[in-house]
Amino acid sequence: MSRFIIFGFLLATCSIAFASDPSPLQDFCVADPNSPGKDYISQHMVLIAIFIDVHIHNKVSIFVYAVFVNGAVCKDANLVQADDFLFRGLHLMGNTSNDVGSNVTAVNVASLPGLNTLGISMARIDFATGGINPPHTHPRATEVLTVIEGSLLAGFVTSNPENRLITKVLVKGDVFVFPQSLIHFQKNIGKGYAIAIAGLSSQNPGVITIANAMFGSNPNTAGDVLAKAFQVDIKVVHQIQSKF
Radius of gyration (Cα) for the chain, nearest Å? Predict the structure, then answer.
């Protein structure tokens, strides 16, 4: 029996190749976390693989598989309610009693289903005195930060080979931009608490905290790799890893 398998990959739109969150084709696509994914598929966000088996007796079998690349299954538009577009509680201060002295309250598609496919999200960041939002990146979003209360030292580092550090002291009302994927941070340099609001150009921007990723990976990154990368003794690496 001769067998030929044809692999066709169809994107919901070609724009997915050019942007992390393409423009929607409908008014809204409220995320439905309870859907098995059979009826309503989030436009732009699905990669379809078509497998066609051609057998010697000219019998053709077609199998279609859907893989969610980004985004969530759409809720039936007739079942959408106002609460699907509502998030409450951003006025509440986050708990900053932790090792870094900050707290991030994220408002993304996971907590606000109406954001699905709309390409935006936001967050509130609370800082205790001396608290930091440690160096991190958002792989899928640019961030616009607005200081609501207090003063912050904000900065980001450009890519290799320059690795240029760009920083600015921000006060109430200031707005600062962190380009997509670049490592950035904030530190409360005031005498009291600080609050900032961040807008992000993705419904699901993602976050990679550098220290956690390097020293708190699961399983652990090999100590000798980190020791050579950071040019420190391997005992120092193990000591840092024990904190994560």
Answer: 23
